[in-house]
Design a protein that fits this description.
alpha/beta, 13 helices, 318 residues, Rossmann fold, binds ligand FO1
Amino acid sequence: MIVALAGGVGGARLAVGLAAVLPPGALTIVVNTGDDFEHMGFTICPDLDTVMYTLAGVNHPQTGWGRAGETWNFMNEIRRLGGADWFQLGDRDLAVHVLRREALHRGLPLSTVTLDLADRFGIRHTILPMSDTPVRTRVKTMVGGNKGELAFQDYFVRLRCRPRVTGFRFAGARSARVPAALARIMRGCVDAVVICPSNPFVSVAPIFAVPAIRTWLKARTFPVLAVSPIVGGVAVKGPAAKMMRELGLKPSTLEVARHYGKRVDAWVIDQRDAHLRERIAHLDKPVLVADTLMTNATKSAGLAQRVLGFAQQLKNVK
Ligand code: FO1
């Protein structure tokens, strides 16, 4: 069993590559729920939906979130009637929010709702939230000398990642409960964990903050491989590099490797960062250099294949 830890767009691209090369029973995708929030009566789960839409092949190709071929009648009417329009809910996307709300209101756990929605999209691989109970990323900021704290979507969408970040906290993490389906997998035989190229601070850190997952990874008997979310000093997508700079870290693959430390056993870095290979290897981390820019499904599957081959090598030596 391969367990992939994924956040938003970067994570989804590798997840779809892994799903292309592994049968459904051999892959579990654990998704960040720190981006989730209550909005207009809905529980919005952006990373779960991005992974689900990408695996179903219906994700919006440019934005990475929401649906392909989307229409905006609902949002246009919300705007005309003076409703909140800073967070765009497309007409097709809305169907998932309505079905999720209906199921959650019936008392079903988020994991059950997620598995059911994925099944309705014809997805046969297992997509699970990191927790069945709410975990909410709070972004600590410093604006004009004033300390502040923002809900994730306020920071990311409403304020377009402009505020300077000083740190993060994950409200609800201490009491987070992993889904029963995930607890079963964690107790079972896992060949490797693959950390997808997601934002270390707001996509991967929330998953590590779930106590049962942190404990499981600490006591691991399998290799943890991470694909660098930084290529050539920039984030493939999103604010990871900006956050690193604001946290006093040089935005580089090497710095990300240092940041993860012993939580990761081996690194997959992009060929554009091949010159950093030795320095990462000196962190006592085997390194695979590959083309990690997943610009299409074929490249995602190709990278997934190489990552799995690397994991196999590591298992043999572990
Ligand atoms: N990101 C935006 O930048 N603007 C939006 O209006 C927006 C709406 C939205 C609706 C549903 C959804 O699942 C995701 C959405 N996102 C939007 C992306 C969202 O902010 C994600 O949290 C990011 O992609 C980071 O993971």
